[in-house]
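Long-time lurker. I teach an intro course on protein structure, and each term I like to show students one example going from raw sequence to a predicted 3D structure in token notation. This year I'd like something fresh instead of my usual example. Would anyone be willing to generate the tokens for the chain below so I can use it in lecture? Attribution to the forum is fine with me.
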Amino acid sequence: MVEICQCTLEGKKLNENYRIDNLLYEEMKEVTMPIAAFLKDEKDENYMRAKKALLDLNNKRMEYEDSEIWKSIRIIEMPEIIKKGYVKFILHKEIYDALQNFSEGFRKFELKTAMEFDTIYAMRFYELLSGKTDPITYSIDNLKIMFQLENKYKLTTDFIRRVIEPAQKGLAEKAPFSFTYKPNRIRKKVISLTFFPYQIPQNVDLNVERKQLQKKVSLRWDLDKMVIDYLQQNYLFEKDEIGHNIELFKEASEKLDIMNFLAKKRRLSFAKVNPKGYLINAIKSELAAQLKTEREKQGMD
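-- Reply from a regular --
Happy to contribute to a lecture. Here you go:
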């Protein structure tokens, strides 16, 4: 879903096998995707895995609260498997909005790397230690609670061997950081572990690193205040959404009459389901057309 949201935010057309339809005046979204999206690979025919994933998501809830209301919302509603090879489920608006925010960069770990881990424990350690440089200590009991293993591994040595060490190895192989650890004992009993994060430069995804650095720089270093204000006031872009597409807006400011372009597209965007995505796609198309024209002129010369 994060990858689907990234496509819609960037104005990209979804693969024909994926759909997001509005229900009840956009208060809910009906999502359709191939059942293969729930399976390990094309050879995987274990459809019970898909059923279990859907049921697990249907049984999980999040709480939403603002100044006016409190809600308890299921992550997904009404999951179903169509025997021809598709899955459908419904998302509440709050869940869909949260996924969109997550896909824009409000996340503790980079999706592509996290999905490549062989164990869920490596993924959870990735989230737990992401961005940390100082040692951090967790009790064995709290670690078991965080990993939902309260009733497993009565022996701490088994917990370390089956959970901590595989996670450590998984991070070292695929993540931009891993950890060493030190057992802390009272008498002879290990009561906690201190983790020491360390960087693995060769595993750093340069695209992710560049995006993280861009987020730390003020938008006004790259864009005129007038452009930023217009995007926020007329297209309802948040600052983080502008930052997510900063390179595109920067190029448009340099190569187009950007304010005139934004004003012209504003009227057309009102009829679009996703005005922000429409604008981003329109900018890309205009820049591509301009590049094509320049190349044709160079060919004539």
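Some talking points for your students: The longest strand covers residues 189-199. Residues 60 and 74 are 6 Å apart (CA to CA).
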